[in-house]
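Input structure tokens:
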């Protein structure tokens, strides 16, 4: 493929591009799902193609194709050049990338068991065993189990001299039990390991085996059934809540990850639930959370779904402080936006959904760093509160300020102990007030990097895979209610 990248860059320069890059991408995806004892889906997809970005007359142009042929390369480059020239007539400012970035390296996801070599029968058998274990629990009407795998090979080259090969491998899985009471019409759901469809990491099939789906299936089903007769979560104007790590991961994603995307802040991402309350004058000054809140963007953490070697501008993966002792100190940036805001070099967060889309700023692994509390000690230290676990619903405004989240399961805490099971628990808040109310974060023993494989952004829409490290954390004075 190096001959294709070289030809594209040469043609772009000859045609007047001040800068050009090309990504050649081949992606294999596999999904296996079962439902109520039967195989529901076996999907295997392969796609390959290339995308070219250019800067001409200070404006961007992008074009792509699935035909990896020399003549097609010339046609696509010409299209990108034409788009850039047209865009230059309406540009708000010239595109500047800052200092050149030159890397000639390769990166591969560390994998112990290649998921694409594991026999399909083995995958189906594991899912069916989990499915059967859930359906053995009386009251469960629907049981689902699934696995998904991704392998993406990328070759990136730029007119600055970068040439980067990467292979990213992902493995994910999950189970869901749906219980119903036919007399009352009550429906309750329990998910494992989390509720975003599946838990996913940049690892091999060993990750699937570690989740022990069949072993956890009976507990998941029993909890779904128990929720049918559980008490409704009470309503409080100011309650103490503890969020489990999977729920906290989604809270981080929505109220921390999205507002720090600098394209949203600068107005180039506004139409698709865009913009942000974290405007530039707040950088380094704004109290986002309490002193125990420390958040980083870390594309290097092992296994994170936002872990890679280089982003789609050829910038190395890195760890960047976002919130330091509660103070907002960093954005997710591209080369252009970092230069525009005078932040220096990009922190490597530009990623594209395959070859047919240009890269945009995306979350990597946005992690709440561990605190000092053991989980049991935190519960024992809570005299009156509610433990909330596994997301069920969520809503947040475009600026990522006002939110409401619902969880699958809650536990009332009285006198430092979990006492009664609660269903339909919800909580609401305003982002900075909520994070300022955090007074305790659990330690690394309870810290998990959760995967979110379905983050949507951009128009045309792009789906990104992001990660979020979290341990359970406690929040004071939170408004709590029930789903109506």
């Amino acid at each position: 493929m190096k001959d294709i990248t070289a030809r594209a860059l040469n043609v772009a320069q000859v045609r007047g591009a001040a800068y050009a890059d090309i990504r050649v991408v081949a992606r294999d995806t596999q999904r296996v799902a079962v439902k109520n004892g039967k195989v529901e889906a076996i999907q295997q997809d392969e796609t390959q193609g290339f995308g070219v970005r250019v800067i001409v007359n200070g404006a961007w142009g992008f074009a792509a194709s699935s035909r990896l042929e020399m003549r097609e390369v010339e046609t696509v480059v010409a299209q990108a050049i034409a788009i850039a020239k047209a865009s230059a007539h309406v540009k708000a400012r010239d595109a500047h990338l800052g200092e050149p970035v030159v890397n000639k390296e390769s990166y591969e996801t560390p994998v112990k068991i290649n998921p694409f070599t594991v026999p399909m029968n083995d995958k189906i058998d594991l899912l069916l065993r989990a499915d059967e274990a859930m359906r053995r629990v009386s009251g469960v009407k629907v049981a689902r189990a699934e696995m998904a795998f991704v392998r993406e090979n990328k070759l990136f080259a730029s007119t600055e001299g970068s040439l980067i090969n990467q292979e990213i491998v992902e493995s994910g899985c999950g189970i869901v039990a749906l219980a119903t009471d036919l007399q009352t019409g009550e429906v309750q759901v329990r998910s494992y390991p989390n509720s975003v469809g599946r838990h996913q990491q940049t690892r091999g099939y060993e990750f699937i085996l570690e989740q022990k789906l069949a072993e956890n299936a009976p507990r998941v089903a029993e909890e779904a059934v128990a929720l049918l007769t559980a008490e409704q979560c009470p309503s409080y104007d100011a309650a103490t809540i503890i969020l489990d790590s999977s729920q906290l991961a989604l809270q981080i994603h929505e109220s921390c990850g999205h507002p720090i995307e600098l394209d949203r802040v600068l107005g180039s991402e506004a139409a698709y639930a865009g913009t942000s309350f974290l405007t530039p004058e707040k950088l380094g000054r704004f109290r986002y959370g309490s002193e125990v809140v420390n958040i980083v963007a870390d594309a290097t953490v092992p296994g994170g779904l936002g872990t890679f070697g280089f982003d789609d501008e050829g910038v190395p993966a890195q760890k960047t402080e976002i919130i330091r002792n509660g103070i907002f100190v960093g954005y997710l940036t591209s080369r252009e936006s970092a230069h525009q805001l005078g932040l220096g070099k990009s922190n490597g967060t530009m990623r594209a959904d395959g070859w047919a889309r240009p890269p945009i700023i995306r979350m990597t692994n946005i992690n709440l760093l561990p605190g000092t509390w053991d989980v049991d000690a935190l519960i024992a230290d809570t005299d009156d509160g509610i433990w909330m676990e596994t997301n069920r619903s969520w809503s947040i405004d475009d600026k990522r300020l006002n939110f409401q989240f619902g969880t699958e399961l809650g536990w009332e805490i009285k006198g430092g102990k979990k006492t009664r099971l609660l269903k339909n628990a919800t909580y609401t808040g305003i982002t900075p007030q909520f994070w300022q109310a955090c007074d305790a974060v659990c330690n690394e023993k309870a810290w998990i990097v959760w995967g979110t494989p379905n983050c949507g952004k951009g128009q045309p829409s792009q789906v990104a895979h992001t990660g979020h490290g979290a341990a359970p954390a406690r929040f004071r004075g939170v408004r709590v209610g029930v789903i109506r």
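The radius of gyration is 24 Å. Residues 232-482 form one domain.
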